[in-house]
Amino acid sequence: MTKTISPLAEARYRDSESSTFPLPTDPSNSLPSTLSTILSHRSCRAFLPFKLPEGTLETLITAAQSGSTSSLLQTWDVIAIQDPEHKSNIATLAADQDFIRQAPLFLVFCPNLRRLKNLSEQYGHQDSPVLDNMNMFIMSTVDSAIAAQNVAIAAESLGLGICYVGALRHNADEVCKLLNLPPLTWGVFGMAVGYPDTENRRSGRRIKPRLPMREVLHMERWNEEGQKDNVASYDKALGTFYEEESKFGRKAWGEFVAGRVASQAQGGWVNIRKVIEKQGFKLE
Ligand SMILES: Cc1cc2nc3c(=O)[nH]c(=O)nc-3n(C[C@H](O)[C@H](O)[C@H](O)COP(=O)(O)O)c2cc1C
Question: What keywords tag this UniProt record (predicted)?
Fold first, then answer.
């Protein structure tokens, strides 16, 4: 019999077609706790003023370093910011998002090709042309994201809340300066980590729905059939979610996305390529 794997899948989609499938384990077993943590994810934007227990940072970074990494090159580093004033300064650069100040820990993930360059020089190579290839830049970004997502899952498994912060790319140059980031490194995104203030609805009390699975899952070949219907169905699901969150007057997702990509207002993004090149990445 086909059944819903869990109320978590229902909550993720609010679309029965997407959430009706058998759990691929012994039916008498409950949902593995790792899956339960992953499916329960919500971004947390309200934190309690509590310090993290000793060993938390190290546990999170061990999880980060346990992720896969292209060719074992390990092309990322992370800066842990806990000092309140320093954290406040980085919050200011990241669209002044106050939850960054509230969170006891803010991590800045830094793609890093510098270590490879240093080693190349140490071993007597004059040039490192491969480092100038765009693929190395992509690799360091992908590795950073894999590491960060492992932190997210580890933190949530410990009962902590997280929120990624891409907004620091609006001031990428200032972030490099504030964190003393040397050439061939930069801050691609941050992550706030702390105890969710569950009294506050910004702590992410509800699971935010995603596009129906059939919209993003293609079998064997790309297929955009049904896209309009899928987005219309998602518009409804997300609309209901926002109403439950008392966030009224939001545009439907399709319209929001259309407006977002058509917008002339790019903020600090207009400088991003310049900042990356200034940091010594060649993107060839
Ligand atoms: C790389 C990245 C950057 C993000 N930057 C921000 C941010 O600056 N501020 C914010 O409030 N949320 C940010 N988010 C969180 C997304 O808005 C959030 O994941 C999305 O709305 C889905 O909600 P959920 O995580 O609660 O499921 C970011 C997420 C990612 C993956």
Answer: Flavoprotein, FMN, Oxidoreductase
